[in-house]
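Q: How would the structure tokens look for this protein?
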Amino acid sequence: MLQRHGHDVVVVGAGIAGLAATAALVAAGRDTVCLEARERVGGRLLSAAALPGALDLGATWYWDGERRVADLATRLGIDTFEQHLAGDTLVQDATGVRRLPGNLIDAPARRFARGADSLAHGLAAELSADVLRLDTPVTAIHRRDTGGLAVHTPGTVIHAEHVIVAVPPALALAHIDFGSELSVDLSHLARSTPVWMGAVAKIVARYSTAFWRDEGLAGAAFSRTGPLQELHDMSGPGGRPAALFGFAAAQAVGPGFEEAVTAQLARLFGPAAAEPETLQVQDWSSEPWTAPPTVHRLADHSLFGHPLYQQPALDGRLHWASTETADQHSGHIEGALAAAERAAHAVLSLTTDEVNSCSR
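A: Here is the predicted structure in token form.
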């Protein structure tokens, strides 16, 4: 028999947006639960331990003017450092490799000394065990005849006044049964919106030293031949741990992919790059709780931050809060935090209005 529970708010997804929204609501005194399908928090914030720091397999940077990320890192006591920029750029095409003066790819940015997912772990550590529920996928969300929404998981039906969907809209529509309750326009928009990083593989090569710096290279490269299309230095503070990383189309991952990557690294950075200590391939398209089956067909990034995502659905009770829905900094950690801030503010404003209405 399904267990039935009631809460003020259910947040779907414990990525950085879901955790930030949950933390804000709990701090405001709202009875809130956060449901995460994975057995870990962080979503697309995922870092691999690499003493003396960490190597990011998902989100990596934040930039000047992104105050929400900076403020959160400060509040959580997370050290940050500047992205390495010094050195020349490499460009690879069918004719070979050219070296261009200066770093023509990277912009000034900051990184997290313990990895980007330290933001997620820091927020999660502030939530009580009854608030954050891992390994709990949401299967359906429907209106209730008596008001509010019913949120279904494999073993539970949770009654909530408001629901915040803090996962990519296309992923939500692929896994969650909304029946016919979403408008046709909203359903079409959600199914069509690309998933940030969803069709990308991120490859991180770790080395004993950042030898490319000694040769005056920034670790930045652009390739028209692949398999890596864009590369950057991912070394930690002072060059430790030493690493390069690159992006590839996820559809390029398959038999022989790692060998092709190391061969490309050697062509770009010389023989020392041919034998990394570790080579990690994070194919985000293969993550069922990140990418829907249609992810490779979703390409219209102009849909990020669409006005429909700024408006609550289902009688004002369903709110969107993934980075794809942010009307500023979409695709960044800052965008996820901005969307979470918007959704939490809407819930708090609406629930305050509801309380005031009932007291009249």
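The two ends are 39 Å apart (CA to CA).

Residues 355-360 have pLDDT under 50 and may be disordered.

Upvote if useful.
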